[in-house]
Amino acid sequence: MQEDKRMANLKTNFLGFELKNPIGVSSCDFGGHEYLAKRVIDQGIGWLTGKTCHRIDGPHRWPRPFFYSLKKFGPELKDSWVCSQMFHNMPYDEWLEKEGPKIVKLCHDNGVMYIGSVGAAGTDGKEWADLCKDMEQLGCDAVELDTGGPHATFGAVEAQADCGAPLAMDPEKAYAVAKACVEAVKIPVIFKCTPQCVNQAAVAIAIEKAGAHAISANNAFYGTWIDHETGTFYGGPYAVGGLIGRSWQLFSLAKLLETTATLKGYPVIGIGGIFTWDDCVRYLMAGSSITGLCSSVYSRGVGVLKECIDGLDAFMDRKGYKSIDDFKGCVVDQFMYVRDYPREHWMAAKSPILPDFKMENCTKCGICAKVCPYGAIKMTENGPQVNDEVCMGCGWCMGHCTAKNQVINMVRRDTKELIWNGRGAHEAWFKD
Fold first, then answer.
1. Bridge partners of 359?
2. Taking residues 347-362, what's their average pLDDT?
3. In terms of CB atoms within 10 Å, which end of the chain has fewer, N or C?
4. Where does 329-429 show beta strands of DSSP type E?
5. Is 362 a residue whose pLDDT tops 50?
6. Average pLDDT for residues 367-390, to the nearest whole number?
7. Which structural domain range is residue 123 located in?
């Protein structure tokens, strides 16, 4: 075995388990079959979630094909997919008897935490609890309640009101299912959220009150695509499916922050749109305890997992971070509810912030003046000039500047303190 020469300590504690690193694979086929599990475990991951197991019968669970690439519709969609796959393809009892034990042993032999995943239709707590008991008996380290699936959302009919995402959007139903499972088993219970929930904070609070030990945020987003040349939609024959890939990461991060800012310090698995090591860092900074990849493993191959582990290690070494805790959750305290924002200062008649130009770096290209929506910037022979009476302090000019070196900074009108420099917020932004 090669000696691990990592400088930073990637170990982290999650639900009482010491993981070798926070990088893992969220619920998918790689956690549902032994030979696939071995492929990702060999990359050095710290944890693995199984493919969702269930007792729901019917062909709807395994349509083929179930991955629909959107890359031909433009470069901005190259990492976007619609997925219509539901649950495991093996009969429940067969997987429980033959495949499950092999995966659990494989994980434990390699120091990998294994999280079983279960799904049921409806809010019958006993049905969910019985599935959790099976996972506990199997030897799973924890169990995830896959309540966040987008597929059953289509149509919003009464028969589907308690399936998948609709269940996870209702705080009372989520509470009832989570509580029944927590009371049934001794292993940690993890509730999987849906990003489609308008008030995810309310669901998160309900889950905590139910005694669940952690939250997975977030499952795939409900979505589809239409091929305008053929007049057909992308998705399974029974539902439009879920949008997976990096394209929805911005939304996923926002919903993650909604959870972590509501339940500060509560264990959260950050998933949804993670494709690179720096994506992992973003989710950790947003308050995730650990981070999971899924669609990127399919899209980029299993090697992306080692890339993320090595990238995280190099990042921490470069920044001088000795442990994950040194930066985990650092963004959460920057998050502020709109009602708490110091609006009196910021809603002044004149913009409280203005662009400040470093003329020595300016190429005088004139783009800032061209794109300014308010006509506040005029080009002169000496470079851009700002009309302070008209400028709204929106930052549009800063975002469009093409100069190699930083030209435009946003500063406070009164103190000239730096607010935003194109690389993040500064303390003055949060002052009244």
1. none
2. 88
3. N
4. 353-357, 377-380, 383-386, 408-412, 418-420
5. yes
6. 95
7. 12-334
Q: Is 426 left (phi over 0), alpha (psi -120 to 50) or beta?
A: beta
Strands 290-293 and 268-271: parallel
More confident residue, 140 or 75: 140
Q: Are residues 272 and 288 in the same domain?
A: yes
Tell me which of 302, 334, 366 is where a domain ends.
Answer: 334
Residue 49 in contact with residue 26, Cβ under 8 Å?
yes
State which of 1-5, 318-322, 329-333, 417-421 shows the largest mean pLDDT.
Answer: 318-322
Q: Of the candidates 320, 205, 325, which has an alpha carbon nearest to the alpha carbon of residue 266? A: 205
Residue 1's pLDDT is 41
Region 372-390 average pLDDT: 95
Q: What is the CATH number for 147?
A: 3.20.20.70
Residues 208 and 283 in one domain: yes
- Please state, as a whole number, how many other Cβ atoms lie within 10 Å of the Cβ of residue 134: 20
Alpha carbons 165 and 146: distance in angstroms, whole number: 9
Q: How far apart are CA 1 and CA 290, in angstroms?
A: 26
Is residue 161 within 8 Å of 135, Cβ to Cβ? no
- The reported pTM is 0.89
The whole-number average pLDDT for the span 352-377 is 95
Q: How do 47-49 and 113-118 pair as beta strands?
A: parallel
Identify the residue with better confidence: 364 or 62. Answer: 364
Cβ-based neighbours of 312, under 8 Å, separated by 6 or more: 10, 21, 22, 23, 277, 280, 281
Residue 169's pLDDT band (cuts 50, 70, 90): confident
3-state secondary structure 186-218: CCCEEEECCCCCCCHHHHHHHHHHCCCCEEEEC
Helix (H, G, I), strand (E, B) or coil at 28: coil
3-state secondary structure of 355: strand
Mean pLDDT of the chain: 88
Selection from 49, 430, 119 nearest residue 271 by Cα: 49
Alpha-carbon distance of 326 to 316, in angstroms, equals 9
